[in-house]
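Chain A, query sequence.
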Amino acid sequence: MTKRPGRGAAGPPPGRKRGSDGRGPRGAAGRDDKNGPGAARASGRQTGGTPRPPAGGRADGAGRPGKKGSAARRPARSGMVPAPRKEASRKEASRKEAPRKEASRKETRPKGAAGAPVRQPARKGAARTAPGKKDTARTARDGRSPRAGAGGAAPRGPRPGGSGGRRSPGQGPRPRMPFHRRDPLKRLNVGLLVVAFVLSLFAGRLVQLQTIESGKYTEQAMKQRVRDITLPAVRGDITDAHGNPLAMTVEARAIFADPSLIKPEKRQPIVNALAPTLGLNPATLMKQISKTGTRFVYLAHGVRPDQARLVSSWNFLGIGTLPEYRREYPNDSLAASVIGFVNDSGKGAAGLESSLNGLLAGKAGWQRVEISPEGQHIPMGEDQKRPSVPGRGVRLTLQRDLQFEAQEAIEKQVRATRADGGSVIVMDPRTGRMLAMASAPGFDPNRYARSSRSRWGSPLVQDAYEPGSTGKVVTAAAVMEHGGVTPRTPYTVPDRIKKYDVTFRDSHRHAPERLTFAGVLAKSSNVGTIMASESITSQRLYQTLRDFGFGQKTGLPLPGETPGLLEPPAEWSGTDRYPIAFGQTVSVNAVQMASVYATIANGGVRVAPNLIAGTVGEHDRFTPAPAPERRQVISARTARQISDMLEGVTTKEGTAPKAQIKGYRVAGKTGTAEIVNPRCGCYDGGGYTASFAGFAPADDPRLVVQVVLQDPKRGSHYGGDAAAPVFKDVMSFALQSEKIPPTGSRPPIIEIHARD
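Chain A, predicted structure.
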């Protein structure tokens, strides 16, 4: 068969024959022709134009993409005769394509300009080689584009980002990555390793919490749950000499709050309910229940059980009650200046409650419990407890009935005379026991907050005053014991006397009188006392005053006691000894002055004043207090002589006839001392202290009564008028309550006026 001549530039590409369908067959002749496309493919050199990758993913050997059966028109190389190619069937092409696909997986990856292999990532949508066509792509060794096939046309690869994309020169078609199913055993092992790693993290954290940091978290947890509750001790009672309660402990409740449980919107209703019921300040209560960083705060102490039950019935979350005790004073203001009171915190704040607080209060215990977030006690939680030790009771020497009479008498006289204050002391001279200690104005220890702070003290030992004429008995004891003076020693007594540049006067003007020393004492003459005191030295006078207890505390367990004022003779001025002789320029408290008269009544033996009879412990076991100190101050003879002289004071010729008690012999002495005016440091305008001290029966003294009124402003300010009537009332009641009968003896005849 005659071959058809080539068409040149317009004809078919060299090496291909047009068949009946317009395509050149691809046969063995085409592959074996050394001058045809097979030769170019074998040598790796490109014979036509630059190959173009297929646009659709199928290459059929044509030069243009997207058109089946269209032949690429390329100029034939000179000297080369195109060989005819036979159309292979699709089955045959498929069989021949298989080994080439296998080879393409192993073909060398394209290299870049520097010769390094370029890794081509797989792309989605990459076109595959059409079935029945041979993939003859090769990596150009000289860096050129790979050959496309017999006609020199290269298959078109996918565009970047989508199918049909144009690949850059120098890169071949993307090799297909085969899918390999992984080994399930390996996947299982990897999964187990991951689970084991996660579990190891949990285990490590668990070890950290329960071992390394367990102490810290345990401590924090305990702080949140554990609460220490104070177990108050039962405070000991204070009773009188016969066991009648003057201060007692009763059951009560404490109101507390857990601020962490109280919601902000619930605070105001709680304040509105609790403040008026418990008598609390609303602003303070609001501040307490709004505290942060705490789960426990006391709101009130000593609440009565009925009030506590009312508070509990409201069921406020975060508000609770605790059992405790409340101090109660069943006799209201009776002996309040001696007993004192216990404040809201449970501590003694005045009187014996303060000075004996350690003995009365006992020792508080504690209980450590676990509390749930709702404020409930966890039964099986931590529960440690140290029981409290109850306080010891104190039995006083006071007698309730006598105390009541003394207090009523002094309160009545203070109101009647409009005095600033007053006090009454009843004392047993033989034992030094205080049987009554009353003062006015007083206060109610059950409601101490309603009274002035100035009334909370014990004026019986805290207030110092100048004794005035009641102090003349000490001068009398000194001159009679050491100066040779007797009750009948005569003196010519004017109404005034001048010593150095100071003039001293009696309380009233009178003509010179011829008096015995007993008369000087009976008429309470300042001038006569000065004249008698010149028989002793200043040092002797000072020492006698000290022996009677001046300038030193009495030893009673009352807070704030003053020792009075008594300077040593070296510090006296040239005239100090004269006013000291008649009870001025020195100061004492009421108990000290009562002790002076108790010493004279007890035959010159001073027994230290005492107020505590003993203590009461468990099972009401009574332990008596140590015996008080006893000391002989003056001789019994001198004491007897002074006692007889003091009986003359209560006669009609004396200064205190209002102190007489029918059927009893009474001895005593009045006192009217000037009070120093603090504005000028002088006695002008300072007022007076009216006092009376005495004992009965005079021939067998059993009781001593001391009465003091500070600055009476209504009526007479003299001791015989203002204080003596109170002495009479209290002494009369005391003699009856103690069942002390009259002695029936006749009083001695006291010579007041001296005989020439």
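The first strand starts at residue 226 and ends at 231. The chain is about 30% helix and 15% strand.
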